[in-house]
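User: Earlier you gave me the apo prediction for this protein. Now I'd like the version with flavin-adenine dinucleotide bound, so I can compare the two side by side. Same sequence as before, with the ligand SMILES added.
Assistant: Got it. Here's the input I'm using:
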Amino acid sequence: MNFELTEEQVLFKEAISNFAQKEIMPLVDEAEENNIFPKQLFKKMGLLGFLCPRYPVELGGGGGDKVMDCIMTEELNKVNCGIAASLMVQGGLSTQPIFKFGTEEQKNRYLIPAIKGEKIGAFALTEPNSGSDAASIKTRAVRDGGNYIINGTKTFITNGPICDFVVVAAYTDINKRGTGISLFIVEKGMEGFSVPRKLDKVGNCSIETGELVFEDCRVPAENLIGEQEGGGFDMIADTLTQGRITYGSRCTGVAQAAYDLSVDYARERIQFGKPIIKFQATRFKLAEIAMNIDIMRSYTFRVARMYDQGQKVRKESSMVKLFTSEVLQKILADSMQIHGGYGYMKEYPIQRLWRDGRLFTITEGTSEIQRLVIAKETLG
Ligand SMILES: Cc1cc2nc3c(=O)[nH]c(=O)nc-3n(C[C@H](O)[C@H](O)[C@H](O)COP(=O)(O)OP(=O)(O)OC[C@H]3O[C@@H](n4cnc5c(N)ncnc54)[C@H](O)[C@@H]3O)c2cc1C
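And here is the structure of the complex with flavin-adenine dinucleotide:
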């Protein structure tokens, strides 16, 4: 398999990197301090085709592939994890089910505006008492004539407080564990849908994360995703599979940013009369980080290419997520160590990466859940 980026991909990487440096970097501090996502980015990036690079041109996307998605994700995460997360949900979790399984009408109404940055999407699976055990969700959708009535509470939802629509997982048949789940598109402003709480986090502060409540929320039957009720669990698995590949690039971007900061700091910091980069202890840490970044990036792109070729990558995508997010923890710990006491001070950017990157072994399936998937796929 050829691991080199094509000329087009290299140009895309440069373009997205320039955009991130010039247009996103200046917004980061304010967004982090105020816990507010700079919403203007959606339209700006949509216009440039940077929001959803892998979706077809006829839908307003970049006409690219998963590799392009990964390139973009890595570059965005080098600049800021929180902002990158909101954009990842737009190009992945919230739109993939509509792209893959939605009707023409749903694509016109939600997917195309999302790709253009005119509508913000969210994806709501997790509930207060249902995280890793997704089949235990309590949200219900009951058919009532031409509508469904949805009742339930979702939590930790990325983009929840700012979304225009949210893809919601709910049971339409409670007697079928897992397979009785369906996905619905609920719009902001639909009666019975509210976002009572924005959640306060220790990291990724520029993501707006919320709790969502559906109280007798009436949703038109045409907002059910898929031809018929049920099948939501497979759609969720499909959505998470592609998302876990992207996660590899998320981790790689953060690892690269931590490495770059650590090298700069180690060159400048003088102790015992010389820059600490001259000490073998520092050099060995940096050497190991450089090696791991190379492995993280190559492995992620390898699985992204397998996905683009139409191969089944459920196991591999879990391997990417597990490997890159766990290795990242050691990289961030070593990077903090290289920074000494200054790294613990808020004025040094390494602490933000350390706080932000801690999340990555938890979201889109914890490391324990990835191990369960890999074991099941490998051992039966
Ligand atoms: C910032 C943030 C953003 C998020 N965004 C979204 C979003 O946009 N949409 C959405 O739907 N969700 C979102 N989530 C939810 C996220 O996916 C869940 O937090 C995650 O799936 C874990 O669920 P939980 O937090 O309930 O932990 P739990 O499932 O309660 O797990 C707690 C611990 O028990 C372990 N554990 C659980 N079951 C097993 C088992 N069978 N074997 C071994 N260990 C086990 C877990 O690995 C973990 O270590 C977000 C979460 C956060 C923090």
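For your comparison, keep in mind: The longest strand covers residues 147-158.
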